[in-house]
Amino acid sequence: MHFTVEAQNKIRSHIESVRTPLPIVAFDGTAGNGFDTCFLAELVGKEGHVVAMDLQREAIHITRNKLEALGRADRVDCICDCHSHALRYLQPHCSNGLHIAMFNLGYLPLGNKEIITKRETTLAALAAVHGLIVEKGILSVLSYPGHAGGSDEHAAVEAWIEQVQRHSRIESYRDESNRLSPVLWLVFT
């Protein structure tokens, strides 16, 4: 299972099934190589808006270049900052709430594996973003317990998921045959 593609498929299916009113506002908390940001830019359409964040300038540069090549850069704010500061960038766009949020944690693929998302900043970002999501919105979190530093963040995200499942529906996906498998959580509000 390719968890990133699975997250995108589930999000697309959910948004289409709930007939989300336009304009759609989406957030990519880990722009990385631009894969999720480009997906969100296509999904929100010309009327919607995406805020994409990454701590690494390289990730923002890669993402901007991909968006420009697709002709969708005008609907995305690419922000080089920690996702824990998401509120300051999202609030101007979220007068009607946030419809979609995606987090693909860990490190930048093909980048420096020592620069990783961290437990504290990820929990702050999840809490802030979850508070903005509208009824019938969706949040995805892809967590990687198998890399250095990943198990601590993964355990924290798992505990956070347990708390929000009291008032949200949760789906999770993992390779049960691999104890270090990435885990995809979908939070339906």
What is this entry, summarized?
By secondary structure, the chain is of the alpha/beta class. It is built from 6 helices and 7 strands, in the order H-E-H-E-H-E-H-E-H-E-H-E-E.
CATH class: Alpha Beta
Overall domain count:
1
Distance between the termini: 25 Å
Oligomerization category of the chains in this entry: single chain
Helix content: 25-40%
CATH homologous superfamily label: Vaccinia Virus protein VP39
Describe the structure.
- The protein has helices at 3-18, 35-44, 57-70, 86-90, 119-130, 150-164; strands at 25-28, 49-54, 76-80, 98-104, 133-143, 169-174, 183-188.
- The chain contains six helices and seven strands, in the order H-E-H-E-H-E-H-E-H-E-H-E-E.
- It is α/β, with parallel strands linked by helices and 189 residues long.
- Strand 4, helix 5 and strand 5 form a beta-alpha-beta unit.
- The two termini are 25 Å apart.
- It has one domain (3-188): Rossmann fold.
